[in-house]
Amino acid sequence: xxxxxxxxxxxxxxxxxxQRFAQFGQVFGLARAAEPRLPLYVGAIVxxxxxIGALIGAALGHPIYVAFLALLLSSFPVLLLVxxxxxxxxxxxxxxxxxxxxxxxxxxxxGWSFQQEPVAMDAGxxxxxxxxxxxxxxxxxxxxxxxxxxxxxxxTKLLALERKRTARLIPNVPVHALRVGTGQGxxxxxxxxxxxxxxxxxxxxxxxxxxxxxxxxxxxxxxxxPIPQGIDPTRFRGKTRPR
Length: 243
What we know:
The protein is α/β, with parallel strands linked by helices. Helix content is about 50%, strand content about 10%. The two termini are about 45 Å apart.
């Protein structure tokens, strides 16, 4: 059988390895920014695995061999730790920025459908996007979740109005309201805890009811306050799509 011709544009194994190391370096840097003591944690994990492996290997008569295997096994908890800290670092970078809710919703893996654009917004006459209150909507088995971001007073007021409006459209479906930001209250949640909080609500809908409710809400739409000229809140969010 003839071998397929080699693609001249495909990077070689050395170049691909360099790219992977560069990507890991970027992720590690982001994780270290969120947790400055990360190198100490990584070193403690690796050292702990090697010591335990050496002790087990000494009992079996192969301390170096088992210690080397333990060193390889230590890469799994290390990668898991770095990934979690990097995710926290990514959330920390978007906290307080316009569109932070949209970016956070992009980390939902399955079970939810959400819109890329806010369903309601209030600029309060300001051209500063940081002063804009925005409401995002997600539909899942727990029902409808409305998430507000922006100045606390304006966001809370807009969230209450949108919650009443949504409850009138789907009177038999639970409508939860959350506000991302700082402050006290059962409905206030940090950006990095948003998805966990949403998944913590009791599931009351079936998998077949979720798309029907989402389709109904999308089809009805609503009147959104005008956006001040020169402000495009969508450019502050990462690309997301319904799950």
